[in-house]
Amino acid sequence: MVYAVVRAGGRQEKVEVGTIVVLDRVKAGEDGTIQLTPVLHVDGDTVTTDAKKLAKITVTAEVLGDLRGPKIVIQKFKNKTGYKKRQGFRADLTRVKITGIK
Fold first, then answer.
1. Quick one: which of 6, 24, 26 has its CA closest to 69?
2. pLDDT tens, 19-49?
3. Would the CA dihedral through 23, 26, 30, 36 be positive or negative?
4. Cβ atoms 57, 36 nearer than 8 A
């Protein structure tokens, strides 16, 4: 079993070949693929965490499309002053499919 833990968008995701992952918005190259930075690589019984060895490993992903996350409502209220504020936020996300771990 081969899998890797990659750093993407301030988080870490465990990925295998064929896994579909939703990340923060990432700009793809002209061919529609991106490179992800591995933090850990597991190949059978071999676990790699050394930075020099991880620099040689590439995790490639194909961009499937861009989407937006669920709306988060931010409300502020102060009692007895008449102050209230309402604000919304939707994160820009990208759906990617892992195509190779080498």
1. 24
2. 999 999 999 989 999 999 999 999 999 999 9
3. negative
4. no
